[in-house]
Amino acid sequence: MNENYEDIIHLPHPVSKRHPQMSMMNRAAQFAPFAALTGFGEVITESARLTDEQIILEEYDQKRLNCILADLLEESPHPAIVVRYFKHDRKKQGGAYEEYSGTLKRVDDFSQSLLFTTGKKIPLFAVLEIIPKKSE
């Protein structure tokens, strides 16, 4: 056999009379990588995602938040506030701190939560900080 393939390089390309020629897309698909571990990437990404631990407030800090809330409700029945609170993660232990800005509708004593005019409900045990929103 010749190293430069001179003996076969100029021969015509064989074409089947029985089978239609495969499209370029189907030919390329034959050589696509095989994903043997489907979904494994998502599992790795999820396990690498970091969560925070909830900060448990001391009694003094809880009283301070209650005073801030009472003062705000005394000034206005529906104050505009920003609340920094802990939201538990649904998939793993821990969670993340989020901020919500809105108009407070009322404090629900039965469910121990803040209810906003938008329907948002934040449990009081999750609240870390309450900031009065400046009127513009």
Task: Describe the fold and architecture.
There is one protein chain. The chain is an alpha+beta fold and 136 residues long. It has a domain at 59-132: SH3 type barrels. The protein is built from 3 helices and 5 strands. It has helices at 24-30, 40-48, 59-75; strands at 80-88, 95-108, 113-116, 121-123, 127-132. Strands 4-3-2-1-5 form a 5-stranded antiparallel sheet, covered by helices on one side. The longest helix is centred in the middle third of the chain and has 17 residues, at 59-75. The radius of gyration is 32 Å and the shape is rod-shaped. The model has no long low-confidence stretch (mean pLDDT 88).
Core attributes:
136 residues, alpha+beta, SH3 type barrels, 5-stranded antiparallel beta sheet
How is the secondary structure organized here?
Elements: H1 24-30, H2 40-48, H3 59-75, E1 80-88, E2 95-108, E3 113-116, E4 121-123, E5 127-132
Antiparallel strand pairs: 1-2, 1-5, 2-3, 3-4
Order of helices and strands: HHHEEEEE
- Beta-sheet strand percentage? 25-35%
The quaternary structure here is single chain
What proportion of the residues is helical, as a percent range? Answer: 10-25%
Gross morphology is rod-shaped
Distance between the termini: 87 Å
What would the average pLDDT be, to the nearest integer?
88
Number of β-strand runs:
5
Secondary structure tally, helices: 3
